[in-house]
Amino acid sequence: MQWDDSQYAGFSKAKPWLPVNSDYRHKNVNAQSKDKNSLLTFYKSLIWLRKRSNALSIGDLEFIDKEPGEVLIYKRKYGDEEVNVVLNFSKRHQAVNIDKEGKERLLLGTHRNEGEEVSLNKLDIQPYEVLIIGSV
């Protein structure tokens, strides 16, 4: 684990038997903890959301689009709580229709602001974008 930007990336005071990664000065736990757009911060938010949501943690799983492709869409449902997850694995924009009227709230995403209203029947997904939409 690259902990910080100190010599040997904070892993040890002694010289490790393997060299540290060349990007350790910028990509480390200390730097990512301070960056609200970092991968570490995003994963912490995912864990927080999963702990808070019965739909995400113990809800039923239903794949919306069962065809293999570049976009994965699934729904998690528990009681009245429903969460839709949209993942674009491609380097291209994708048009997505979940076939549900109205707008839902963005719970977490990689390219948009939390709390933003999202229309499920007409989504333009950016390359490599992740959207977690619903109400918790």
UniProtKB/TrEMBL annotation:
- What are the Maltogenic amylase-like C-terminal domain coordinates in residue numbering? 61-129
- Domain of life, per lineage: Bacteria
A GO molecular function assigned to this protein is:
alpha-amylase activity
Residue ranges of coiled coil: none
**Residue ranges constituting the Glycosyl hydrolase family 13 catalytic domain according to the UniProt record:** 1-57
Q: Which GO terms describe its biological process?
A: oligosaccharide catabolic process
InterPro entries tied to this protein: GH, GH13_cat_dom, Glyco_hydro_b, Malt_amylase-like_C
Q: Which Pfam families match?
A: Alpha-amylase (PF00128), Malt_amylase_C (PF16657)
- Which PANTHER family does the record cross-reference, listed alphabetically? ALPHA-AMYLASE FAMILY MEMBER (PTHR10357), NEUTRAL AND BASIC AMINO ACID TRANSPORT PROTEIN RBAT (PTHR10357:SF179)
Q: Which family does it belong to?
A: Belongs to the glycosyl hydrolase 13 family.
Instruction: Please identify the protein, giving its name as recorded.
Output: Uncharacterized protein
Q: State the organism of origin.
A: Desulforamulus profundi
